[in-house]
Design goal:
Protein name: DNA-binding beta-propeller fold protein YncE
CATH topology of the largest domain: Methylamine Dehydrogenase, Chain H
Helix content: under 10%
Keywords: Signal
Organism: Nitrosomonas communis
Largest sheet: 6 strands, mixed
InterPro entries: Cupredoxin, Host-pathogen_enzymatic-act, N2O_reductase_N, WD40/YVTN_repeat-like_dom_sf
Strand content: 35-45%
């Protein structure tokens, strides 16, 4: 329902425009007293919830200058209220809060488009269009700014890509459903908007630039099976017996079928985000990102072992190779001791580790158990922590305070690591001995944000970026550009730390991990938030070590079949929300050497010893 205050502009709209509005809003319910209320929730697609709909989205409102915007909390964890997009030069912008569960208010006076997010969960989106009653069309502003300081015309390709992403993100009916044979249709509000180029019809522009009613690529299994299985955090799938979303899905690498879905209704498991396993590959550790718990369950049976309190918004979990201790990043925790260390199998919390910063997200551990690196999302830097001395080796800036470093990857010999900056659209290569930046990889260098021309590989809003177990490639999932990019990480070459290939991805492209391919080599598995398929990437199809010929080897559905084992019935968003990925067995250097013989014997000699 269109969310507008009653005013003279509404009363004087033409019959045509009133017809459009009537088709979008049953009963024409308008905001009272020029006030917008967002409830921040754990519910997929409705993280910023107004309670009313516009073209299927309950996260957008339209008001007039002076609107009071009120944020309230209805979530199990903390969130920031961050104005990620706003009219250039708008009064009171940027607006940004500390992570909290309480409420916040602000007044918007400058006409234009305002998009809010949570810095901890950066796909949570809510928008307000502040419309000047004296102009025709809904005002987006002639120029828009990102919180990073970048500004661009509101008619530019970058602006419309961001708008398209907003309407996909906030309406589950707009997500790609590979369980259906219907074309992919994205519903946009049928309204005219005022941009720098004049008044245009919003869906006409978006459909002309990006298409609509597109046929989805067919599902197809990779020709070569994988060793073991692949676990995917299908974070938005809803089930019976729960008020919170989220399952964890296991795909059998032999036949690419979904073997099991774990919803954990007994604990109301809330948005499981990322996973890891123990040295014997017997349990699954799953971090509940919209909560404060780490869940441990039996990998084979799906039975709950324990549910451990660890802190606000636990994001990623990994083990140390030398003692199997767990380390969980509390991405909602502003304290500097924001990494939790747990005993093997999470039997108890051992300590909090001080990394000098709060809000870490996707960390990585070295092959020898000596080092941990963290991306610190709110402070725009990265920490290198030394377990041998229990001290911080370095805290290194990788951008400004709004660059949003979100994920790390590491070479298998721990000589270098990489930090993906979500909002800076870059990957930073760091020398682990000298603690210096070796290279800044600009993922937008082949993109014209005004015209939209793409002249080479493009990675807009990068997220997970692990390095292959043999150190030859890094695969990065990019949320905004819906692309997968492959970086050559082989040392000493002209192409070292250069993006050498781009592949298509699904909307909300997010999670990546490497697993073993039967007979040798690796697959990189890529999951997307707003799709229910898993992409299988072969980073080196001809086994020559050069990742420039990487290709998509298959696409596997993440929705259940009649043969899928479940602990609850699927009630909505079937297979959706793909984020964290865990291939079993773990084949990264340091972990692969600790595998039991039952797993190790399924690998080739090169896979058992990924670096020589």
């Amino acid at each position: 329902m269109l969310y507008m205050p009653l005013n003279r502009k509404i009363m004087n709209m033409t019959i045509c425009v009133m017809g459009i509005l009537s088709s979008l809003s049953a009963g024409n319910i308008f905001a009272a007293d020029n006030e917008v209320q967002f409830s921040l929730t754990d519910n997929p697609g409705r993280w910023y919830d107004t309670g009313t709909e516009l073209a299927g989205s309950r996260s957008i409102a339209v008001a007039t200058p002076g609107v009071q915007v009120k944020f309230s909390g209805n979530s199990n964890t903390v969130h920031t209220r961050t104005s990620v997009i706003y009219p250039t030069g708008a009064a009171g912008m940027p607006f940004n809060t500390e992570p909290k569960k309480g409420g916040d208010n602000l007044t918007l006076t400058t006409p234009g488009l305002y998009v809010f997010t949570c810095s901890i969960h950066p796909y949570m989106l809510g928008a307000v269009i502040v419309d000047d009653p004296a102009t025709t069309g809904l005002d987006l502003g002639s120029s828009l700014s990102l919180i990073t300081g970048v500004s661009f015309p509101s008619s530019s390709d970058l602006a419309t890509r961001l708008l398209r992403t907003f309407f996909i993100t906030t309406n589950p009916a707009n997500w790609q459903n590979y369980a259906s044979s219907a074309p992919w249709h994205i519903a946009y509000p049928n309204v005219d908007v005022r941009v720098d180029a004049g008044v245009v019809n919003l869906p006409n522009v978006l459909n002309a630039r990006y298409g609509n009613d597109l046929a989805l690529q067919p599902l197809n299994n990779p020709a070569t099976p994988a060793v073991g299985e692949v676990w995917v955090a299908t974070q938005f799938e809803t089930t019976s017996g729960k008020t919170k979303a989220g399952t964890v899905s296991a795909i059998n690498g032999a036949d690419w079928q979904v073997r099991r879905k774990v919803a954990m209704p007994s604990i109301n498991m809330n948005n499981p985000h990322n996973m890891w396993t123990d040295k014997d590959q017997n349990v699954i550790y799953a971090a509940q990102w919209f909560d404060s718990k780490l869940t441990v369950f039996d990998r084979e049976t799906g039975e709950l072992i324990r549910n451990v309190s660890v802190g606000e918004a636990p994001a990623h979990v990994m083990t140390l190779t030398n003692n199997d201790h767990l380390h969980i990043t509390n991405s909602g925790d502003t304290r500097t001791d924001s990494v939790m260390e747990l005993a093997p199998l999470a039997t108890n919390v051992l300590r909090r580790i001080d990394i000098g910063r709060g809000n870490p997200h996707a960390h990585w551990m070295s092959h020898d158990g000596a080092t941990m690196v963290t991306p610190n999302i709110i402070t725009g830097d990265t920490t290198q922590y030394n377990f041998s001395t229990d001290t911080i080796d370095a805290i290194l800036p990788v951008g400004n305070e709004f660059s949003h470093p979100v994920a790390t990857g590491m070479l298998p010999d721990a000589s270098k690591y990489y930090v993906a900056n979500l909002l800076d659209n870059s990957i930073i290569a760091v020398d682990m001995e000298t603690h210096t930046i070796i290279k800044h990889i600009n993922l937008l260098e082949n993109y014209d944000p005004i015209s939209g021309n793409i002249s080479g590989p493009l990675g807009a809003m990068p997220i997970q970026s692990p390095v292959s177990p043999d150190g030859k490639s890094m695969v990065t999932a990019n949320m905004l550009s819906e692309t997968i990019i492959i970086t050559d990480t082989r040392p000493g070459l002209a192409t070292t730390d250069t993006v050498v290939k781009m592949l298509p991805c699904d909307p909300g492209c997010h999670g990546v991990q490497y697993g073993a391919k039967q007979g040798g080599g690796y697959y990189a598995y890529v999951a997307s938030k707003f799709s229910n398929s898993l992409l299988v990437v072969d980073p080196d199809p001809n086994a020559d070590g050069d990742p420039s010929d990487a290709r998509i080897a298959g696409r596997v559905g993440l929705f259940a079949s009649s043969a899928t084992l479940k602990d609850a019935n699927i009630t909505g968003n079937a297979g959706m929300g793909g984020q964290g990925i865990l291939p079993v067995p773990l084949v990264y250097n340091g972990w692969v050497q600790n595998l039991p013989a039952s797993w190790s014997n399924q690998l080739t000699e090169a896979q058992r010893h990924p670096i020589q």
